[in-house]
Specification:
There is one protein chain. Helix 1 runs antiparallel to helix 2. A four-stranded antiparallel sheet has the order 1-2-4-3, with helices on one face. It is elongated, with a radius of gyration of 17 Å. The protein is α+β, with helices and mostly antiparallel strands. The chain has two helices and four strands, in the order αββαββ. The chain has helices at residues 4-17, 46-61, and strands spanning 22-30, 33-40, 67-75, 80-87. Helices cover 28% and strands 31% of the residues. It has a single domain (4-87), classed as 2-Layer Sandwich (Alpha-Beta Plaits), CATH 3.30.70.
């Protein structure tokens, strides 16, 4: 069974590779950080690429409790590099049964 995070990453990769603005997108991980190498088609601006990345991420995150952290890293003559991460919420989302002080049962929704 896949988590929401894993499903969002898979859908994000699929949407990017199906995009008409991009020739292809490669996903690599260095020191645990995910990077996207975006190879644009001719006459595609950096602004268009960033909007496409955000649109694909929004579609992948829809219905899930995730947020997006995207940073431009660098550009070469053939591709752009972005660090794209989906962040999970920083608060507890369920009761673990250990009677924690910050238990989700003691908060108002």
């Amino acid at each position: 069974m896949w988590t929401d995070y894993e499903r969002a990453v898979q859908q994000f990769e699929q949407l990017l590779n199906e995009s008409d603005l991009l020739a292809k997108a490669e996903f690599k991980s260095f020191t645990g950080l995910p990077f996207v190498y975006v190879y644009p088609r001719e006459n595609t601006s950096q602004k268009d690429i960033e909007e496409q990345l955000k649109w694909c991420a929004a579609k992948a995150m829809k219905g899930k409790r995730l947020s997006l952290a995207m940073n431009y890293v660098r550009r070469t003559q053939t591709f752009y590099v972005y660090r794209v991460r989906f962040l999970v919420p920083q608060r507890k989302m369920f009761c673990c049964g250990n009677f924690c002080d910050d238990c989700i049962r003691f908060t108002n929704p």
